[in-house]
Specification:
Elements: E1 3-13, E2 17-19, E3 22-25, E4 27-36, E5 40-41, H1 51-69, E6 76-84, E7 91-92, E8 95-104, H2 107-127, E9 131-138, E10 143-145, H3 147-161, E11 166-168, H4 179-182, E12 187-195, H5 216-241
Parallel strand pairs: 1-12, 2-11
Antiparallel strand pairs: 2-12, 3-10, 4-8, 4-9, 5-7, 6-8
Length: about 240
């Protein structure tokens, strides 16, 4: 029993495919922090507890603390893509909203980092006269490509497409819901390129300007079908021999 998935890759030329055995994609979690102080007139600093300064310190300290404590063999990403302080040129708001993502490939470190994020944010805000509300929502688990399945699939891809069109890939800190399946069933995800030859800056999957080279569909369909048939044949032979 096994499960296989494929995913397009704009940075890879159409007609090419890529494989990575073992750890491939990160687990991802969403971070929501509300930093609460006391707002007021920006000119009356003595009357306020500035949540903007608290939030700034939290952002800088979290980045430094998490990245410095991350295990050396555990790739880690902490990024905040939303900072909302709804004040004005002369108005300090009562609170600031921070939203970001934490990603890693180590479950023990993942749990530890969640605690560090919450405690550090709370301690900083408290020391500056404020408080925080922290919510960390668990996302997808990390994606581990079964080594044996990946090795066999890569060999079959070379048979079908030719060695020059089969590439080795590095880990990616993006996340994938296919990882839920590989927690239960041995599996593997590979990539097939949809990039256009000669394009120096292919637009990413989430860009409104993304445009796939549709000739790649032939590669994706043929390889996935070929793997399904040939891997079942290999599995049947292995069962007979055992």
């Amino acid at each position: 029993q096994m499960i296989i998935a494929q995913h397009i890759l704009p940075e890879m030329e159409a007609g090419h495919v890529g494989f990575k055995a073992g750890m491939y994609m990160a687990a991802n979690d969403e971070i929501y922090i509300r930093v609460m102080g006391k707002g007021g007139h920006a000119a009356l600093r003595q009357q306020i507890k500035d949540p903007i300064l608290m939030a700034s310190q939290i952002l800088l300290s979290l980045q430094e603390e998490i990245m410095s404590k991350a295990p050396g063999d555990s790739p880690t990403v902490l990024s905040f893509g939303k900072v909302l302080a709804d004040g004005a040129t002369n108005v300090i708001p009562d609170d600031v909203i921070l939203e970001g993502t934490f990603r890693t490939m180590n479950e023990e470190w993942r749990k530890e980092a969640h605690g560090l994020i919450a405690s550090l944010a709370s301690n900083i805000a408290s020391a500056m006269g404020g408080s925080v509300e922290v919510e960390i929502r668990h996302g997808y688990p990390f994606l581990h490509n079964n080594e044996q399945i990946t090795r066999k699939s890569k060999r079959l891809a070379i048979q079908l497409l030719g060695e020059e069109k089969v590439e080795d890939m590095d880990i990616r800190m993006t996340a994938e819901d296919f990882a839920w399946f590989t927690q239960l069933i041995p599996g593997m995800m590979y990539r097939f390129g949809v990039g256009n030859p000669g394009s120096e800056q292919p637009y990413s999957l989430h860009s409104p300007k993304f445009k796939a080279n549709e000739s790649a569909l032939r590669t994706g369909i043929s390889l996935l079908s070929y793997l399904a048939i040939e891997l079942l044949k290999i599995e049947a032979v292995e069962k007979i021999n055992t």
